[in-house]
């Protein structure tokens, strides 16, 4: 059995270096083949069948082996997430998949977060207002989160309040739910990257529990 | 794919894996008939940047609509018939000569489906996601989006439930154009914020 390390996911790409130019095209087919549309459809079908939350759905892709994630196309990510959820929830077995595919069928790795038994009370009143300075928690949760690594520990300013929403870190690993306000927080790019760039602001949308007063 | 009915191209490994999962789920009666074809049809002909272009053209021609759109995007966009998944909480950000907005999703591929359709491959691939929050001025220049050196850049990382749409500047010389003609000028890239019109 291979050892599994708890690390921040490969999907959390903001600020990572060495990727080169954007392979831009002004227009392109929506699907480059029937298999892409099928992969898209199948993840939706599986997520519905197992009643996966948005967080569990995203995490099924984030748990891919990092090398596989970086060397496979977007809809191969969807296929891998769909197959992983289907196996984990007992819809199909890995042996069946590999027999049908005529070869190896890589799946996403296991989730590491503990299931949340008590999500705690909903937060209906925002703790912060537009203009407040906030600091993003500096932590490395083992499961799903929507707090990008590149803003953890960083100071920013609240620019917008967006109502309350289910906390992804909880819904990805549990039927429990907690609703909290989300905020759009503005960061000075020069302070994020220490590179002296001017006039660049990066806005990240963050749940209440990701933040503390600065 | 190359090949024809008499000599079909062999399936690639990923196509074989998709076919395997599709077959197993179909046997379990989880795949409705025609489901894949329906998804393809909707995203190829109904849901795409032609929808967002109508929103932009309306904002350019109706100042009151624009004011409401910038205050809270969701309801004014729904008035034109566009809403649903990945469009439930819309924020529209306005470009001006001094401010340029651009959208990204560093964690996955969040994108306003009802107004822009499904995101292009480059939006979902690592270079754009990694670099747009770190060196947007360089990435925009590489993509052919030249900005005045002193223009402020606002990058919006779609990390929670809001989805963003950029309202590009109305090009000069379009004063006599109808709303429909204006919509024809609006590109997908201008509403992501990687191009100016």
Could you please describe the fold and organization of this structure?
The complex is a heterodimer of chains A (214) and B (197). Chain A has 214 residues and is α+β, with helices and mostly antiparallel strands. Chain A contains seven helices and five strands. Among the domains of chain A are: 34-101, Cyclin A, domain 1 (Orthogonal Bundle), CATH 1.10.472.20; 133-213, Roll (SH3 type barrels). In chain A, strands 4-3-2-1-5 form a five-stranded antiparallel β-sheet. The longest helix of chain A is centred in the N-terminal third of the chain and has 16 residues, at 34-49. Chain B contains eleven helices and four strands; from the N terminus they run αααααββααααββαα. Chain B folds into two domains: 13-44; 48-192, Alpha-Beta Complex (Nitrile Hydratase, Chain A), CATH 3.90.330. The longest helix of chain B is centred in the N-terminal third of the chain and has 15 residues, at 13-27. With 197 residues, chain B is α/β, with parallel strands linked by helices. Chain B is globular, with a radius of gyration of 20 Å. The chains are: A alpha+beta (214), B alpha/beta (197). Chains A and B meet through α1, α2, α4, α5 and β2 of A and α1, α2, α7, α8 and α9 of B. β4 (200-207) of chain A pairs parallel with β3 of chain B, so a sheet runs across the interface.
First-last Cα distance of chain B:
35 Å
Overall average residue pLDDT of chain B: 95
Question: How many distinct folded domains of chain B?
Answer: 2
Strand content of chain A: 15-25%
**Main sheet: strands, sense, barrel of chain A:** 5 strands, antiparallel
Helix content of chain A: 25-40%
Secondary structure tally: strands of chain B: 4
Report the radius of gyration of chain A as a whole number of Å: 19 Å
Apparent shape of chain B? globular
Overall pLDDT of chain A, averaged?
94
Following the backbone from N to C, one meets helices and strands of chain A in this order, namely HHHHHEEHEHEE
Q: Cα distance, first to last residue of chain A?
A: 44 Å
Globally, the shape of chain A reads globular
Low-confidence stretches of chain A: none
- Give the strand tally of chain A: 5
């Amino acid at each position: 059995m291979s050892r599994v390390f708890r690390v921040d996911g490969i999907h959390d790409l903001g600020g990572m270096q060495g990727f080169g130019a954007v392979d831009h095209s002004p227009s392109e087919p929506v699907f480059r083949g029937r298999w892409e549309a099928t992969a898209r459809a199948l993840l939706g079908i599986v997520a519905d069948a197992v009643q996966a939350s948005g967080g569990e759905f995203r995490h099924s892709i984030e748990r891919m082996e990092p090398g596989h994630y970086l060397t496979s196309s977007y809809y191969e990510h969807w296929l891998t997430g769909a197959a992983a959820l289907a196996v984990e929830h007992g819809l199909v077995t890995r042996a069946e998949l590999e027999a049908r595919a005529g070869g190896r069928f890589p799946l996403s790795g296991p989730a590491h977060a503990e299931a949340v038994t008590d999500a705690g009370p909903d937060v209906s009143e925002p703790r912060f207002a537009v203009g407040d300075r906030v600091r993003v928690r500096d932590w490395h949760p083992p499961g799903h989160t929507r707090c990008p690594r590149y803003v953890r520990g960083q100071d920013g300013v609240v620019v917008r309040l967006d109502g309350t929403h289910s906390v992804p870190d909880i819904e990805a690993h549990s039927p429990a739910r907690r609703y909290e306000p989300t905020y759009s927080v503005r960061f000075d790019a020069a302070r994020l990257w220490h590179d002296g760039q001017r006039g660049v602001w990066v806005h990240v949308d963050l749940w209440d529990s990701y933040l503390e007063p600065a | 794919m190359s090949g024809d009915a008499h000599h079909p191209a062999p399936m690639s490994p990923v196509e074989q894996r998709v076919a395997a999962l599709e077959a197993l789920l179909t046997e379990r009666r989880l795949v409705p008939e025609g489901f894949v074809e329906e998804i393809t049809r909707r995203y190829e002909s109904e849901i795409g940047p032609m929808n967002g272009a109508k929103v932009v053209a309306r904002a350019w021609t109706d100042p009151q609509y624009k004011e409401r759109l910038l205050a809270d995007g969701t309801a004014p966009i729904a008035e034109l018939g566009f809403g649903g998944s990945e469009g439930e909480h819309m924020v529209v950000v306005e470009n001006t000569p001094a401010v340029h907005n651009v959208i990204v999703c560093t964690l996955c591929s969040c994108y306003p489906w009802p107004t822009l359709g499904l995101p292009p491959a480059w939006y979902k691939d690592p270079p754009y996601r990694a670099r747009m929050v770190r060196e947007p001025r360089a990435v925009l220049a590489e993509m052919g989006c030249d900005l005045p050196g002193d223009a402020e850049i606002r990058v919006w990382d779609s990390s929670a439930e809001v989805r963003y749409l950029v309202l590009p500047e109305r090009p000069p010389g379009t004063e006599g154009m109808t709303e429909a003609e204006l919509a024809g000028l609006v590109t997908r890239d201008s509403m992501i914020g990687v191009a100016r019109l």
